[in-house]
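Figure 2 data, in text form.
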Amino acid sequence: MFPRSLKTELHYIRHRRKNPSGCEYCTAYDDGTSQLVGTHGSMMILKAKFPYARWDNWKVGVHLLIIPIRHTTSFASLDDSESVDMMHIIKEYEADGYSFYIRAATNRSRTMAHVHGHLIKSKA
């Protein structure tokens, strides 16, 4: 079972087939996008273009992404200031009821090379 709704998952699969190259996160930051919620130092926060419908068996209310502005492929490759910026965002959003999840660079279900973390807030 997909964490996205079937309709959203199909849109996502079609989108990935049509846009196989380039980094969408770098493009979103460089070109500006309505997905951009904000920035904090070296990190950007985007609304998920293809949000999850369920997380830990709960309906998702809000799905955001924390993404380093610098293109990098693993959490381990973040420098100290990037790590501090990411943790600041995680702490701020966790206090507002969000959970945080990040996949390892080697995780086969990860579809974007640019490292990113998911901020998930369940529906009340």
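Caption note: The first strand starts at residue 36 and ends at 40.
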